[in-house]
# Entry
Amino acid sequence: MEYVVSLRTAQNDVKAVLNLEVERKARVAPLMNIRGDDDKQVVAFLDNWGDFPYLLDVSRFPPDQHDGLIVSGVLHSPAGGYQAKRDFYDWARGRNAAIVPVVSWATGDSTREIVQCAVQLERSYDTIAVVVDMSAGNAEIEKVTRILDAVENPAKLLVILNVGVKSPPDLSANGEVLATITQIRPYGITRAALLSTAFPNDKPPSGTSRIVTCLDILWQKAAQTILGDFELIYGDFGATNPTSPLEYIPGMPVIPFANILIDSGWNQFRDGKDKEFLVYPNIADAIRALPGYQGDDFCWATREIGRIASRVDNKYGNNGTWNGYKINQHICAILSGLGTTMHGSLEDTE
# Structure
């Protein structure tokens, strides 16, 4: 596993990862953040992902906080060492045993409950992940050492350093990333995963296109070079931005939008009027004409782009459909670009 991609259990996020080829599934571990008013998309993912490691957490993205599945299941409650969340993990394991449960928390949650959650999960699972919010301050970051002090086998933990939208972060010795790695090394931890996004939270005006640099690739490879023998697993949010507003609010205009990653640049296109999805074949033409375009056979998304450009039917999709294409193509392009300078195996943390 070379890549942790943080997504949500939304329909098109799920489609994006389920349509990865087997050889790509073996290299990427989706970190699926539970959301929704029911478990339909969670079940769709669990039942169809296959026997490949995946990480499961409860979404803390602001748009998801009032979703029925989270609220009715009290899945954010710290009570009993996050008993409700741990029960949900056990239910998920019953459907797909390749789960890696995630320990995460909100600022201010009881350290005791966080540690108890980690201890209980470590006793029951071969590997667990701990997501550390690097923007939450030293008191929150230091909770990872409390966890490492308490668990029986720290080597079973995959520590994920979530930089969020602060991309690139400070990579000096005193910056949060390297300082945290210095803290966890004495526990025998020899690898960690990074998580960041430089994906913009806005879109170009209709009728225009632009290229946005994917800084995540650049700074995470630089961090690996600095650390040398300490292995870093690449991680991002799959060409999404967790701070962006909801994709759709009733009454707002929906302008067709597409995104494709080539080398280290996101090529973004926006065209047409509100819900004028008939322009998508034109956008598909523009994508296929880009220098460096990987070709229609590169992945599920590009096969769909090729079909839409051919105009063989009237199935051009909508913004949600193309969001799935965006995520799928991004994952495949990242895997192609990682090379051998940043890689690791989730199984090696056991």
Summary: Residues 63 and 249 are 11 Å apart (CA to CA). The chain is about 35% helix and 20% strand.
